[in-house]
Amino acid sequence: MGNTNQNSGQSEQSSSSSLPIDSNQKSKIQIDDNELKNRLTPIQYAVTQLKATERPFTSEYYKHRDSGEYICIVCEQKLFASDSKFPTECGWPAFKQPVQQDNVALTEDLSHNMIRTEVTCSSCNAHLGHVFDDGPYPKRTRYCINSAALKFIKKIPK
């Protein structure tokens, strides 16, 4: 991820997803940087705005199993459903797919001498994590996402 990484272990492998990459990604909404610094925690700001990475196995949603939706911490766009989350040993929450493919944007990331695919929120351009092609069958995608980029909305039973 960026130079502010606390640990770059999120993707020691040089894996790149076969998903289409959007090289013309543009933020739809603009949020004042000072407002973000005041509203987000230091790690939320570092992850979403500076492309930092949480330390593995320490994040809030890594082993989280409640039913609901994970939304963007910056703009509250729906990103991932709990039924898409799966257990993994990578150290971060992992999802099979987003709620809607166009809710995330994918861009090539050549940082840290690796070839990876960065995942950002398509609405506000917040950095979320990376996507890899080593997930469960049949699609094999693993969206490896920082908890600090997410907010969980628990599903209320009917």
TrEMBL record:
Its cofactor is Zn(2+). Signal peptide: none annotated. The keyword Lipid biosynthesis does not apply. Its EC number is 1.8.4.12. Residues 1-24 have a biased composition (Low complexity). PROSITE patterns: MSRB. InterPro entries: Met_Sox_Rdtase_MsrB, Met_Sox_Rdtase_MsrB_dom, Mss4-like_sf. GO terms for cellular component: cytoplasm. Pfam families: SelR. One of its GO terms (biological process) is protein repair. Binds 1 zinc ion per subunit. Keywords: Metal-binding, Oxidoreductase, Zinc. Residues 33-155 form the MsrB domain. It is an enzyme of class 1 (oxidoreductase). Residues 1-25 are annotated as: Disordered. It catalyses: L-methionyl-[protein] + [thioredoxin]-disulfide + H2O = L-methionyl-(R)-S-oxide-[protein] + [thioredoxin]-dithiol. NCBIfam families: peptide-methionine (R)-S-oxide reductase MsrB. Belongs to the MsrB Met sulfoxide reductase family. Methionine-sulfoxide reductase that specifically reduces methionine (R)-sulfoxide back to methionine. While in many cases methionine oxidation is the result of random oxidation following oxidative stress, methionine oxidation is also a post-translational modification that takes place on specific residues. This is Peptide-methionine (R)-S-oxide reductase. It comes from Dermatophagoides farinae. The lineage of its organism: Eukaryota, Metazoa, Ecdysozoa, Arthropoda, Chelicerata.
